[in-house]
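Pilot study result, target chain (415 residues):
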Amino acid sequence: MQWPFEVLIGLRYLRAKRRNGFISFISLISIVGIALGVAALIIVLSVMNGFQKEIRGRILSVASHVEISAFDGRLPQWQGVAKVAERDAHVVAAAPFVNGQGLFSAYGNVRGGLVRGIEPVLEDKVVDVGQHMLKGRLEALKPGQFGIVLGVELARQLNVGMGDKVTLFTPEGTVTPAGMIPRYKQFTVIGIFKVDMFEYDASLAMIHLQDAQVLSRLGDTVSGVRLKLDDPMLAPLVKANLQQALGQQSQVTDWTDTNANYFRAVQIEKRMMTIILTLIVAVAAFNLVSTLVMVVTDKQADIAILRTLGAAPSSIMKIFMIQGSVAGVSGTLAGVAGGVLVALNLDVIVPLIERVLGTKLLSSEVYMIDYLPSDVQLGDVSTITVIALLLALLATLYPSWRAARTQPAEALRYE
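Predicted structure:
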């Protein structure tokens, strides 16, 4: 295959000679810089995608997709509300709940947390807590027996295990002649769960729905109804439809409302990290400008001879654009390969680094999870690749244009 002479000369200029080895070294540094910037961008975005995906999954293992509640905290005839909700084709399950705050006490240890009254059979269809039970089963919650299921961190803080007694104090008190007396009840631990999300593991306790109604004096009413959808991403749409069907008597929220601040913060962080790391790629790409300017200066005589032999200015420009583009493409492809490889093996690399350093990089109490998840998305990799290639191409324009303007007589005057 006969290549155009512009391609052959551009590729030849990439090979170092003894007298211009420094220029080739600078070009190599530019390629490495582009590769490192692209790899860092892919790894960081993959980690943020994985973090968001993992946290969303853990949130939805405990939190429902959609909740229907009353404005005064008492929802009567929840069965009728559930039937209305289940008319929506995307609703696959519904379960009542009673929410409340409580103070747990056992063996001199006191901790605050969220108390949730549930119907075990229905609750297991809405969320996945039953699949995360370390000890016991949700079905062991029976009305009138005052059993309780605790998060693993909450159980550890209270220093209790299966069969131990936990006293639950509620904010609602009982008025007596002696004043306000806190309402409390003793429960037996019949289960411990772990969803690997510190917020829930350290603060959530579940009791039977009827026990919660008795404790909160709700009678036959509940706090609301929790719904599970066939696609969690349709929660805002289903919420709007249910709000219209139920009218203003009930309040409908979805999981994106409950965790809006968190997911908004993650999106903002992802955008900012993308901008910052793209600037790093841009700096590395524009290092090609200095490299090509030095090459153009070094090749003044060669350019003059080519012009004298009849090469058009556009051909001279193509030579140096090809040289810079090959360097940019090489750095980009190396960065993509390295970034994807590292992102796909973070589950092996991070534990190795932790063992070498002898420390834990992530604490579940701060970051919700204690490892770095990764989710490599083709869209992100494609976008990063295109941006890096465009930046590298832009970096070749000025030096190539400057080379095309070289005047043969001026270049050969002192040769």
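One observation from the pilot: The CA atoms of residues 5 and 193 lie 70 Å apart. A full batch analysis is planned for the follow-on phase.
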